[in-house]
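Continuing from the previous page...

OK, I double-checked the sequence for FMN dependent NADH:quinone oxidoreductase against my notes and this is the correct one:
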Amino acid sequence: MANILFVKANDRPADQAVSVKMYEAFLNSYKEAHPNDTVTELDLYEDNIPHFGNDAMTGNYKLAQGYPLTPEEQSAADTANRYLEQFLAADKVVLAFPLWNFTAPSPVISYISYLAQAGKTFTYTDKGAVGLVGDKKVTLLCARGGVYSTEPMASMEAAIRPIKATLGLFGIQTEEVIIEGHNQFKDRSAEIISEGLKATATAAAGF
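Thanks. Re-ran it with the corrected sequence; updated structure tokens here:
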């Protein structure tokens, strides 16, 4: 029996958001295939995740060093560590988000920033950073209306790539399911989405 954390970073309704459809397809398929696992859902928009900034960075530094924190720093550090502890407690994590304006939505960027804590998800060595949570399974679900898997757009893709790289810093080798091109190719949109959702459900069953 595993603990799995589902994280959603899209506040659009499912009929207007392919990444939300992917989230729901993966969730339903996973529950059907793994009925005894414990599922926790985190909606970053409903949670109104605060933007990562100075209070979180300074608060976590002071906390690690045993220095007194301001109330604002304590609140931000508590927020950061609440997300981190939930992430660390999960055996598996599924993160669903769209590509909007060439990048991921700001809540998921803040979420990943809260997780990036030296000594907890990675550590510094004389050979560089080394991940500390490499045994965690993570699947990234991403929808993007254009085609970003090939040039000229591939070099502009800033949703999957930075998140995958940061999780790689943690030692995690992610799996990805991507649906793309459904806005670019209007005549094949329904087919692209349908095939992508089938692939999403299949990935969930084997996760």
